[in-house]
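Hello everyone,

My group is preparing for a crystallization screen and wants a predicted model to guide construct design. The compound we'll soak is magnesium ion. Before spending weeks at the bench, it would help to have a computed complex in hand. I've included the protein sequence and the ligand's SMILES below. Output in structure-token form would be ideal because that's what our pipeline reads.
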Amino acid sequence: MFTAETVIALRAIVAEREWDQFHSPENLAKSISIEAGELLECFQWSPEFDQTRVEEELADVVTYCIHLAGRLGVDLDEIVMRKLEKTRAKYPVEHSRGSSAKYTELPNDGAP
Ligand SMILES: [Mg+2]
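Reply:
Good plan to model first. Here are the tokens for the complex, ready for your pipeline.
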């Protein structure tokens, strides 16, 4: 889990380098996707993977997520918990336990 100290350090590195000018929501969203691709690349040809490389790419994804949340002025804990409530509704335990099926394939699709 990351802490406020991590967020402060991330903001500092951006401020010191005046990178904020490049951190539009669009650019940050693209960067998340690009870094997610680099993370996926770690597993491209084999289930074996380099733990250090995976950690670095995961850190890149999370870093851009933190920057985008900051740029949008949203609290990551809040939006994740809000989304979690929706996920709970879409995937009732009684229909989704042990299943990887998409909610639309479950007996109850979570519709109110
Ligand atoms: Mg990377």
